[in-house]
Specification:
Elements: H1 8-16, H2 22-40, E1 43-46, E2 62-66, H3 93-100, E3 104-109, H4 143-151, E4 157-162, H5 168-174, E5 177-180, E6 200-205, H6 208-218, E7 249-253, H7 263-278, E8 282-286, H8 294-310, H9 328-339, H10 342-354, H11 361-384, E9 387-391, H12 400-405, H13 408-413, H14 419-424, E10 428-436, E11 439-447, H15 452-466
Parallel strand pairs: 2-3, 2-4, 7-8, 7-9
Antiparallel strand pairs: 1-3, 4-6, 5-6, 5-10, 9-11, 10-11
Helix pairs in contact: 4-5, 8-10, 8-11
The structure holds glutamine (GLN).
């Protein structure tokens, strides 16, 4: 049997019909992973073996997991040297749910350290390369996940994580589908935190149907994470009809289409919107006026939370240790200086400053108010529209040589289209919508809180019409 054309959903069906020899399938799979990894660095750890359990909704499916999500018995470092060698004695809730449905965790994907980045260039263990052009970035921070999704010609779903765009950005740069669920709809128990009020776990796949299936398995209340929403589990596949978009109201935020966006990228997204009009959708321009505050608000909030989360890596209870000598302050700064990368250090400084007594009112508390304004922008827009559509990223995947020349602020500005939806905690889906100079362009479909069904429906209709 050849697997290269099968989606995850089709593969599971074939397994359930008894058409797949899983033993042989996994031998081929790990040979392929080793070959790809040598060339592209998608995985920090490969976890060989077979599914622990037969049957279930994911019967035999291979799933890769971003390195910041804990996996029992498999090293989980969040891409940081400070956690090198950490082997969790437990599974994160989404991982245990996936395993309970018969899937096999095949390895841990490369990422920016703790999720700090947009290009997966701030990695403790090697930088993943874009499979379409290895001189370019996979995007970040779930770069290994999206790169592997594109390159691996076998059925597979990846689990990624987003704080400010880390599922959408790499999905866009690698030409695959990324789904970031509503904040609180998927448990964060067992996730190595970046910024607790922003972090979400979500799937990356080759098609909309595959990510819808995965969301149905991982979403739902978890008593181990009190921030999960108490909502009945849903079967998201039921939203996917390939029919028309008649009656669907699409808003196009004008701030997301302005000069900051590459003209060719904008054109591809406009063409895609035209296609959706042909499918029956009604479109109109709208405004999200507080977009201009989203980058500073996000980077203050995210680094504030990150700096408190990283405080526990002090060489005593968590992470790397050193030779205990001298004052405590001397000891822990030695351990932290050695094992944290430059970007982690930059964010610790920025975040600690923003929440210091004396600056708290000026930065952190002000940002909390701005966050509410940004949420209200979206709430207002969703009174008029079912979904909003924009480019996922303002550019196609840049070359590593271009990234090297960027200043930290230029780097942060790349997140201009993804941070506001993440601050608002709304669900978003990035789907490929064409190419510019051979590199994929992503279209972002944003929905109101808990309306994953609508964005999946729109994404699926577009994908079917475009293919
Ligand atoms: N690029 C953003 C950052 O560096 C988002 C990363 C993420 O979502 N983990 O913070």
């Amino acid at each position: 049997m050849t697997y290269s054309k099968l989606s995850a959903v089709q593969f599971i069906d074939a397994v359930q019909r008894g058409q797949v020899n899983l033993e042989e399938f996994y031998i081929d799979m790990f040979a392929e992973l080793a070959r790809l990894n040598e060339k592209y660095n998608f995985l920090i750890t490969i976890a060989e073996g077979k599914p622990e359990k037969g049957g279930g909704k994911l019967a035999g499916l291979p799933v890769s997991v971003k390195d910041c999500i804990c996996t029992k018995g498999v090293q989980s470092t969040a891409g940081s040297r400070i956690l090198e060698g950490y082997v969790p004695p437990f599974d994160a809730t989404p991982v245990s749910r996936i395993k309970a449905e018969g899937a096999k965790i095949i390895g841990k994907t490369a990422q920016d350290e703790f999720g700090f980045g947009t290009f997966s260039t701030n990695c403790g263990f090697g930088v993943p390369k874009n499979p379409i052009d290895p001189a370019r970035s996979c995007g970040g921070s779930s770069g290994g996940a999206a790169g592997l999704m594109k390159a691996l010609n076998m059925p597979h779903i990846a689990l990624g994580q987003s704080t400010g765009g880390s599922i959408s950005c790499p999905a866009s740069f690698c030409g695959v589908v990324g789904l970031t669920p509503t904040y609180g709809s998927v448990s964060r128990y067992g996730l190595i935190d970046y910024a607790n009020s922003l972090d979400k776990i979500g799937p990356i796949g080759k098609c909309v149907e595959d990510v819808a299936l995965m969301l149905s398995v991982i979403a739902g209340h978890d008593h181990m994470d009190q921030t999960t929403i108490n909502k009945k589990p849903e079967d998201y596949l039921r939203y996917l009809s390939k029919e028309s978009l008649k009656g669907v109201r699409i808003g196009i935020p004008k701030e997301y289409m302005d000069e900051g966006v590459d003209a060719n990228v904008r054109q591809k997204v406009m063409d895609a919107i035209g296609k959706m009009e042909e499918l029956g959708a009604k479109t109109a321009e709208c405004s999200l006026p507080n977009t201009k505050y989203s980058i500073p608000a996000y980077y203050i909030l995210a680094t504030t939370e990150a700096s408190t989360n990283l405080a526990k890596f002090c060489g005593m209870r968590y992470g790397a240790e050193g030779v205990v000598e001298g004052e405590f302050n001397e000891y822990f700064s030695k351990v932290r200086s050695k094992h944290f990368g430059d970007e982690a250090k930059r964010r610790i400084l920025l975040g600690t400053f923003a929440r210091m007594a004396g600056y708290r009112d000026q930065f952190y508390l002000k940002v909390m108010r701005v966050r509410t304004m940004i949420i209200n922008d979206f709430k207002l827009a969703f009174k008029r529209f079912d979904v909003l559509i924009a480019p996922t990223m303002p550019v196609v995947a840049p070359r590593f040589s271009e990234i090297k020349k960027m200043t930290p602020v230029e780097n942060y500005m790349m997140d201009i289209l993804t941070v506001a939806p993440n601050l608002a905690g709304i669900p978003m889906l990035s789907v490929p919508c064409g190419e510019v100079k051979g590199m994929p362009v992503g279209m972002h479909i944003l929905g109101n809180h808990l309306e994953e069904g609508k964005i999946l429906k729109v994404g699926n209709a577009f994908e079917s019409a475009a293919s």
